Amino acid sequence: MKPARCVVLLHAFPCDGRMWAAQADALSEAGWDLVIPDLPGFGASDVLEADPSLDLVADVVLRELSVQRIEGAVLAGLSLGGYVAMAMMRRAPERFSALMLCDTKASADTAEARENRHRLAEAVLEEPAACGGILRQSVLPGLLGATTFAERPAVVAEVGGWLDEARPEAVAWYQRAMAARPSSIEVLAAASIPALVLWGEEDTLSPEGDQHVMLDVLGKGSSALIPGAGHLSAVERPSTVSRRMIEFLEGAVLRS
Fold first, then answer.
1. What pTM was estimated for this model as a whole?
2. Is the pLDDT of residue 2 over 60?
3. Which residue segment(s) compose the domain that 90 sits in?
4. Which tens digit of pLDDT belongs to each residue from 115-173?
5. Rounded to an integer, what distance in angstroms lies between the CA atom of residue 85 and that of residue 214?
6. For the chain, what is the domain count?
7. Helix 80-91 and helix 168-180: axis angle, to 10°?
8. Residue 104: which CATH number?
9. Rounded to the nearest 10 degrees, what angle do helices 111-126 and 131-138 cross at?
10. Residue 239 lies in a domain
11. Residues near 240 by Cβ (< 8 Å), separated by ≥ 6?
12. Which intervals hold domain AB hydrolase-1 (predicted)?
């Protein structure tokens, strides 16, 4: 696998690698090799038997890339995937040639946000059979934008299905891990590689202000606003997101 043509895609919570399906097709067609790690607790992998920490997830992905002998790849993450990507940059920035941060944020959670995450973790563990319903009520409204809810029922149904599949123990583990994550603003400030900050115009979980916090500290940052999309922009506006990613890759990455 040629490092200069390799992209590592990290998925959002509580989805899995399927959320990148459209981008995987588009990037492959454009000549890019892809790695879509199965984050612990999603897909076929088990939840880590350790205190919740996104640094541990970052270590798992870094080991996977080492096994595959991948160095110098482009690192991309959406939402939770962005948090993991920044944790990987904290641990091994020299291993990546560029960064794409989609619908995510570099700041740590507020006290209120941490409390809400712990409350959700407790709720799904107390009623594991109701996990999907709890996520549909508490998480789904923030994952998708108003345009998607109004005009894209198939997308709403698809994302709702992913929530129904989520394992309660994984939901609880990741909620606690995200609540415990540190700020990554200094990590981004130290980054010397090209970076794309991409977000949905209707994203209420990682709104525009959070994006500008990252853009303000990135030395080689560029931005992409996705109209008519919320927090899962890659699923809501797949062709637009794919196009903006390829533009970044072909421009900032291959010409750098």
1. 0.95
2. no
3. 3-108+183-253
4. 999 999 999 999 999 999 999 999 999 999 999 999 999 999 999 999 999 999 999 99
5. 14
6. 1
7. 50
8. 3.40.50.1820
9. 150
10. yes
11. 226, 227, 229, 233
12. 7-238
